[in-house]
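Give me the 3D structure for Large ribosomal subunit protein uL13.
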Amino acid sequence: MEKTYLPPQESLEKSWYVVDATNQRLGRLASEIAMILTGKNKPTYTPHMDTGDFVIVLNAEKVMVTGKKRTQKLYRRHSGRPGGMKTETFAKLQARIPERIIEHAVKGMLPKSSLGKSLFTKLKVYAGDSHPHEAQKPQALTIQTIPGGDK
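Predicted structure for Large ribosomal subunit protein uL13 (151 residues):
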């Protein structure tokens, strides 16, 4: 009889990481962040448990996209009322709420369940280069993506 693997309790301690989004490509950055949030970078990864770490993203306003995505990529939201659909381009949303771009990209890469909702709460995104989580002693994490920009 096979049993479900459960990692030992002492391996479930959460670490805090700081990621700088300056000149990083959005999708590649978001996929790396999603892997850390889910815990896929650890040997104790278990699909049905929260084994991931906390991630703080700084400089969200400096994230890059390639091609024509700056003017053609649309973000939609709906108020729930008839005719309540609002659309916004990447450039307008980046000028207004740059944190939402990274949050939207990472949330799409997490599981679509209650586990995904709890994993999403471990993501902290800030537009500037400062954050209020110094007490957690976060470690700097460098993500090696292809630096991008408009060609």
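Strands lie at 16-20, 54-58, 74-78, 85-89, 123-125, 139-140. Let me know if you want a second pass.
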